[in-house]
Design goal:
This protein has 134 residues and is mainly alpha-helical. 78% of the residues lie in helices and 0% in strands. The protein has 4 helices and no strands.
């Protein structure tokens, strides 16, 4: 009888520990998915700016909205990546005057400082994405 109780208690504890570990892992994966989406948005944003430099003019059919750029930077900072978040907000501040005009078609690329910062941000985002969930 005592052996059966000990066995049942052990089984119960095993189930509880397994459930807790499963919930912890699911939470980690959920957070990683949200972080990854923010970094993919950042890569998309930097790719648009890099395209501007490659072609010499902004894409006439697509342009990043400053609101989306600000939200991406805020999400990255909210996940605790101050380095990338700070650089993303700096890029937003530098890029805003160049993309805020109603008509940007045919506009020359912004100053080289923006291109350098864009490259740094793209590298940081790719680095963060390559680490995967912890």
């Amino acid at each position: 009888m005592i052996g059966a109780l000990i066995g049942a208690a052990g089984t119960f504890l095993g189930v509880v520990v397994t459930q807790r570990e499963t919930l912890r892992r699911e939470r980690e994966l959920h957070l990683w998915k949200q972080r990854a989406e923010a970094y993919v948005d950042l890569v998309r944003w930097t790719a648009w700016v890099q395209h501007w430099y490659l072609v010499g003019a902004p894409d006439p059919y697509e342009r990043p909205r400053t609101v989306e750029m600000a939200r991406t930077a805020a999400r990255i900072r909210a996940f605790g990546d101050d380095e990338t978040g700070t650089k993303a907000f700096k890029l937003l501040d530098l890029l805003r005057p160049h993309v805020s005009a109603q008509e940007i078609k045919g506009k020359r690329p912004p100053p080289p400082e923006i291109e350098t910062l864009t490259d740094e941000l793209a590298d940081l985002a790719r680095e963060r994405l390559s680490h995967g969930p912890r």
